[in-house]
Amino acid sequence: MKTSDCHGDSNSKVIGIIGGSGPEAGADLFGKVLALHRKKLGKAYKSDRDAPDIVLMSVSNLGGPRTAIDIEPGNLKGTYEQCLAALDDTIRKIVPLVDYFCVACNTLHMFESQIREALLDLGRNPSMFVSMISSTIDTCQGQLDGNESVKFSIFGGPVTMDLDGNSSYRRLVEEVGIEHFYRPPPSCTSILQRIIWKIKQDGKVTTRDKVFAEYEGLLRDMASHSVKICVLACTELSLIDIVDITDLSIKFIDPTEVVANALLNLTQSYPEENNRYLAL
User: Which of 72, 172, 175, 190 is the most exposed place for a label (fewest CB within 10 A)?
Assistant: First the structure.
């Protein structure tokens, strides 16, 4: 029985988060759901009992880091099959407990079609899976409306940056139009990979780390190409605090914030005046 069944409240459904890639990313998304819920509920948030019901499953077998070889079926390391099996097992465990769920990893959305097929096999509606990718693309399209001069770009891991290959964000380029998109050079991918791996190893990046200076350099190069909106297409990158870089004219779209907003809109009820938040 789901928690929402116990409450008997159709406006307070249960949110599921599949984490583990990496563990901090799942915890970060959990925290963003809580913080955004408080903001959207406003003065109506009185106590712990007003918090949303959330099930977080952090599964180490879903963890990375990943390179292109890791997402190839039948690779010698067996990482593709291991990850898909772990994801299928986790879906079977979380589905009876929640009303909607997401996966707290951009790269794992390469399995989006398999996730929806697994839900059908379980007799569930595939729409209970809330795609971080689709939610982010919708947000980007909203930024394009009435602003035809805006230019987008994307920062992520090796898979999500492969916009001609297996990246789940290929559709973003197709839908906003190549004329609105700046592709970072190949050298950018290797630097981002080092940054992501450091976060996976240490849990964070600080301004004292060498890779922070490299990251700042990438952002400034992006700004020099007139990029106005950057999608942080790796959950580790959203853990980097860039508040000290105050002179950038880039707006960042954090897919974890976007999917947190989508999950809350599907599961909670808010005062109309508080529910105008656009996750960016």
Answer: 190
